[in-house]
Amino acid sequence: MSDLRELYQQVILDHNKTPHNFRELKGANRASEGHNPLCGDHITLYLNLKDDRIEDIAFQGSGCAISKASASLMTSALKGKTREEAETLFGKFHDLVTADLDTSPDTDSLGKLAVFAGVREFPIRVKCATLAWHTLQAALNGADRPVTTE
Ligand code: ZN
Which of 35, 36, 56, 100 measures 20 to 30 Å from 137, CA to CA? Predict the structure, then answer.
């Protein structure tokens, strides 16, 4: 278990250092801002949504390693997915970070996102891990107001 935890931490640190899809998305038809005041995380998420499919997705922002790694892994997981698939994955991700400590992550459907199982031990970090997803939801719903995890 401690080996697994170390591996999870390493993935999060790597994605924090060199996040994927970390750029402004030119020609995005959806964008949304998210803010987690408890930690100071801030993210702008860009989407190019075409016929209910996420053709491209990118983000910018600043914050802790968990919020940044979460946005990096989320954007990698969602490129090419439909809106419905994205919402299903959000449900699974939310279950993952709020489940009991002894529940095994559903790695089949979560893939690399399972590394966030570790945040269950730190409830205050759940908001860091879900910020990108809440911002995604706002972007998908076309909200133009900044979202907050509060
Ligand atoms: Zn944070």
Answer: 100
Number of Cβ atoms within 10 Å of the Cβ of 56: 19
Question: Coil, helix or strand for 103?
Answer: coil
Q: In the 8-state DSSP scheme, what is residue 90?
A: H
Please answer whether residues 36 and 146 qualify as being in contact, where contact means their C-beta atoms are separated by less than 8 angstroms: no
What's the 32 CA to ligand 1 centre distance in angstroms?
18
pLDDT in tens for each of the 150 residues of the chain?
567 778 888 999 999 999 999 999 988 999 999 999 999 999 999 999 999 999 999 999 999 999 999 999 999 999 999 999 999 999 999 999 999 888 888 888 999 999 999 899 888 899 999 999 999 999 998 855 556 676
* Full-model pTM: 0.92
**How many Cα atoms sit within 13 Å of 70 on the Cβ side?**
32
